[in-house]
Specification:
This protein is of the alpha/beta class and 135 residues long. The chain has three helices and five strands, in the order αβββαβαβ. It has a domain of 69 residues: 2-Layer Sandwich (Nucleotidyltransferase, domain 5), CATH 3.30.420.270.
């Protein structure tokens, strides 16, 4: 007696889309990763005078009581524009970093930004803290 065999259709899996997805993931992780350590290890020479290599930043800080600090020195709001102008004259990069408490008045924030622009600041960076949203 002869049995008839059913013709089973062969299931084929196309690997091309899988390879595309793997390459996309590889590119994503390469572009989004941050490198903490430099890839080239160097033994750098030492110098006694470090002042020329340091970047001098201008930081305006306002605490929750509205007290203003310019590079950790207490400043009155009326003197801020003049002091910023003097600092801007001595700098090649005209950047200011603003650090303000979240509870300061918006009016005070706008007044300080206006003073910085009038003093000659070209870029004003607003310092903030990144937090993840939890759902």
């Amino acid at each position: 007696m002869q049995f008839r065999r059913r013709n089973k259709s062969q299931i084929t899996l196309s690997i091309a889309p899988l390879v595309d997805i793997v390459f996309l993931l590889l590119i994503f992780f390469l572009l989004s990763s941050s490198y903490v350590q430099p890839s080239i290890k160097l033994n750098l020479p030492e110098a006694r005078n470090q002042e020329a290599a340091e970047k001098q930043e201008i930081v305006v800080t306002v605490d929750k009581t509205g007290t203003i600090y310019l590079n950790r020195e207490l400043v009155v709001l009326d003197e801020l524009s003049e002091r910023l102008g003097n600092l801007m004259k001595t700098r090649s990069q005209r950047e200011i970093i603003f650090r303000g408490d979240r509870t300061i008045a918006y009016d005070l924030f706008v007044r300080i930004m206006d003073m910085a622009k009038r003093a000659g600041a070209e870029n004003i960076h607003i310092s903030h803290q990144y937090t993840r949203e939890s759902n």
